[in-house]
Specification:
By secondary structure, the chain is of the alpha/beta class. The chain has seven helices and seven strands; from the N terminus they run H-E-H-E-H-H-E-H-E-E-E-H-H-E.
Length: about 190
């Protein structure tokens, strides 16, 4: 399945943005179209939230299924998988505390992968947006790497956007994370 490149009409949702923000959104679109991970760096959380909302609103709903995950502090790989599966509607909370059913992380990841491939086959890439990505543990970063390998019809079925504090950019420069950093197509730094 080939996806059409985004047109200026797709960016109409970001018309109220400043010129700098609009440029950032366009760079993120280019990275996603080129099948790279997009990275938003800002120490101002409301700015990250605003850009993520505009990015999600500017993507054609017919072509992207947008999932958003807020990374909790010290989240394990299993917890992140549970949050991703929950945002994809693959599991239902057991109670008001948001605790998910006791399906293994491996099974949830396989379900998510199958759902992402099915969605891709139906014409929609799955976009997972990780807010507060600077809180990702090494195991969480390995999960990001795994998600970036999900393919369907010789194309990447899952697109990724990581929104983080500026210190996260330094982490990706470490030798252990070069493979993940090499998959990053746009790094957008925004002050306010």
């Amino acid at each position: 399945m080939a996806f059409a490149p985004l047109h200026s009409a797709a960016l109409s949702a970001s018309a109220a943005l400043t010129g700098e923000d609009e440029s950032a959104i366009r760079r993120l679109h280019v990275a996603l179209d080129a099948r790279f991970i997009a990275l938003i760096l800002s120490d101002h959380r409301p700015t990250r939230t605003r850009l993520l909302a505009h990015l999600a609103g500017s993507l054609p709903a017919a072509e992207y299924r947008v999932l958003r995950v807020s990374v909790p502090p010290q989240a394990t790989r299993a917890r992140l998988i549970s949050l991703i599966a929950g945002s994809a509607g693959l599991v239902q909370p057991e109670d008001a505390t948001g605790t998910y059913s006791r399906t293994s992380a491996y099974d949830l990841l396989r379900r998510f992968e199958a759902e992402a491939v099915r969605s891709y086959t139906d014409g929609r890439r799955t976009l997972v947006i990780f807010d507060d990505a600077h809180l990702l543990s090494p195991a969480g970063l390995h999960l990001i790497h795994s998600l970036s390998n999900i393919t369907a019809e010789n194309d990447l079925a899952v697109a990724l956007v990581l929104a983080a504090a500026t210190s996260f950019g330094e982490r990706l420069r470490r030798p252990a994370w070069r493979a993940l950093a090499s998959r990053t197509g746009a790094v957008v730094r925004v002050e306010r």
